[in-house]
Write the structure tokens for this entry.
Amino acid sequence: MPQIEQLPFIFTSQLFWLLVVFGIIFFGIGRGMLPKIQSTVDLREQRIADDLAQAQSARAAAEQTEEAWRNRMDEARAEAARLAQGARQESARETEAKVRDAADQINLKVETAEQQIRQSVDAARAEIEAVTAEATREMVARLTGIQVAPEEAAQAVKAELHG
Amino acid sequence: MAAEGKIDPMHQFTVEPIAPLKIGGVDISFTNSAAWMLVALALIFGFMALGMKRQLVPGRWQMAVEGLTGFIDNMVRVNIGPEGKKYVPYIFSLFSFILVANLLGLLPLAVIPGLHSFTTTSHFSITGVLAVMSFAIVLIVGFWRHGLHFFSLFIPHGTPAVMVPLIAAIEFISFMVRPFSLALRLFVAMIAGHILMEVFGSFVVNGLNGGALGWGVGILSFIFIIGVSALELLVVAIQAYVFALLTTLYLNDAINLH
């Protein structure tokens, strides 16, 4: 086994070269290059974590904005509904008032018309009474020759007519 | 391969000097082992350099590098907790060096004449040093953070008073065995796999040289060696992971005690 047979002759050389090579690897690569690579990795992970946090907060902000927007929209919608309701009520009231005015006028007209009709009827009735009394008096005078006083005739006619 | 057609499965582990070098009487020759360690270093550096663009949106190479570092980081965080952060470079160095060194040993470079890959992690002179280094860090961290209280590691919570000496002795032995188990596990896994592959490879070569029966053996061995290679790829990754994971767990003991 050369490892054992050669050991006394090669050990110092092996040790020397191993220490040289391993020293260079440890100090040059392990402590020189490795931390730089690690720091790059750490930096990237930090960056990713930061970006994620930022995205998270941006999302929260967006949600907040949307919430506010929705609230505003709800408010505006409620306001619009309120206004529409008011306008509707207003117009309903106006219409009602107009209708009432019109109805009043119509009623007035009807009343006056009725008044006139009643007057005409009364006048006509008075006329009839007068004519009837006159006719009655004449009929009585022709048939019996009795001259009935116009007041009496009118009284009798009135009594007959109104029962 | 040894000379005269005789196949020596151990030959692949021989360390051969490329450029003899001595400093103050200490031999630090540049060997094939050292060369392959430098190749591993270059590969790791090249791979990591691809991840240094530091883009916010990573490309595929940066993604791969970040996957590896994230894997180690995650392992340390899960096993030690937030305090383990400063041990990530060490665990990463261990894992990447062992993984790449293991993988390099599996490269079929022997098909190119004059070249053959060498598995540095199949030498306990390498795995042993790594294990001792891990163990030493555990000891230093443990005593530095907890002082003599670190010894309470040997007495698990809720141990009945009469059992304390026995349990402490057992815990102490299991603690002291740690560097050996770390070093030997990796070394043995590597050497066993390579010997197995070499032996079956030699069956293929010798079988094809020797008649109809030999052809049968050769083909069977060839099929088998495909499976062994796939298994070795798995073992290579698992051993690197186990070494790094165990070091993390031992560090966790030292940092958080029980």
Chain A touches chain B at residues 1-3, 6-7, 9-19, 21-22, 24-26, 28-31, 33-38, 40-41, 43-44, 47 (CB under 8 Å). The helical segments of chain A are 2-5, 7-144, 150-162. The radius of gyration of chain A is 63 Å.
